[in-house]
Write a structure and sequence with these properties.
It contains 17 helices and 5 strands. It is an alpha/beta fold. It has 2 domains: 98 residues, Orthogonal Bundle (Arc Repressor Mutant, subunit A); 176 residues, Glucose-6-phosphate isomerase like protein, domain 1 (Rossmann fold), CATH 3.40.50.10490. The chain has a 5-stranded parallel β-sheet, with helices on both faces. Helix 9 crosses helix 15 and helix 10 packs across helix 15. The longest helix has 22 residues. It holds the Pfam family HTH_6. Keywords: DNA-binding, Transcription, Transcription regulation.
Length: 319
């Protein structure tokens, strides 16, 4: 630890806070790692939070925050906050790029290099999620959704987009579902649920207050509750009956790693398909009816676009 402190302390001041944290992270004790995780997720947090508030968010003490500041080369929390503010206001193009896009990317990277980096990360996230998913639990969730009176889905921000996507898919196959991105409406709906309802909360971090509140309210009303998050010990997971794990966002793809959303989408696709299997005949009929209902709003394809294109059909269970 001493060597790490002296190495960072000798920095001439040009090293960003994010770079200091990344350099020191492998040698940090668990309590300091929690602080680092807060900073990597919300780099501007020290500007808005007092030392006590940052400690509370990280689940540690103010004294540990002070030691953390010294480990990454600052004399204390005040100087640390100045460093964060300087990073945010810095005009250097390369540093801004690193802060906003991530360390794996560089302004001079070719498009091919960017594609390769993205592809590797997205494949990693999908494979990791596939390994985390408990298929027996997902199957039980699908059965519960297929037979429930109503399904509520909660998500805020990017996770709200995922909630909307799942609702749209399930609604097409006959599931009475609604998604909520607004906490007042969501809490009202959650309070009206019952033991015949299912409620799903979606949050990468599992720490979004509004989603936690809505899922907790649904649980109190008697609903079967599901959390979809990368952190199985998060507050959201703690209020759910079942948690489906997804791959954690890559810390180098800041601030909004799309690979995390792809992990969520894979889980949602899996739930959708397993629900569809529970009532295959009805699902096929409903999909055909919904497709027919909107067919008049689509322009026909040109003959050259359909030539030699294989037809798509729903595979029967006996095939």
């Amino acid at each position: 630890m001493t060597a790490m402190v002296s190495q960072v302390s000798r920095d001439d001041g040009r090293m960003s806070v994010s770079t200091r944290v990344q350099a020191s992270l492998p040698d940090m004790p668990a309590a300091m790692v929690k602080i680092a995780e807060v900073l990597l997720e919300t780099p501007s947090a020290p500007i808005d939070l007092s030392i006590t508030e940052l400690a509370e968010r990280a689940g540690t003490s103010a004294a540990t925050v002070t030691r953390f500041c010294k480990v990454i080369g600052y004399s204390g929390y005040t100087q640390f906050r100045v460093g964060v503010a300087s990073d945010i206001g810095r005009g250097d193009a390369h540093e801004s790029w690193r802060a906003d896009i991530g360390r794996e990317f560089h302004p001079e990277d070719t498009a091919r290099e960017v594609v390769r980096t993205l592809l590797n990360e997205h494949v990693r996230a999908l494979e990791t999620t596939a390994g985390l998913v408990d298929l027996d639990e997902v199957q039980s969730i699908a059965r519960a959704i297929a037979t429930c009176r109503h399904l509520d889905i909660y998500g805020i921000g990017g996770s709200g987009i995922m909630a909307e996507e799942l609702q749209a898919r399930l609604y097409r196959i006959g599931v009475s579902a609604h998604y909520w991105q607004e906490v007042h409406g969501g809490l009202t709906s959650a309070a009206l649920q019952s033991k015949n309802s299912v409620a799903i909360g979606i949050s990468n971090s599992g720490r979004t207050d509004e989603t936690i509140q809505m899922l907790s309210q649904a649980a109190s009303a008697g609903a079967f509750t599901v959390a979809i998050t990368h952190e199985d010990s998060s507050p959201l997971a703690n209020v759910a009956d079942v948690t489906i794990g997804t791959a954690a966002p890559d810390p180098y793809l800041q601030p909004d790693d799309l690979s995390a959303k792809h992990s969520q989408l894979m889980v949602l696709d899996l739930i959708y398909l397993l629900v569809a299997q529970e009532s295959f005949a009805d699902t096929a009929t409903r999909l055909a009816a919904s497709a027919m209902a909107v067919s008049g709003h689509r322009r026909p394809q040109r003959p050259s676009q359909t030539k030699n294109r294989p037809s798509l059909r729903i595979k029967e269970p006996s095939e």
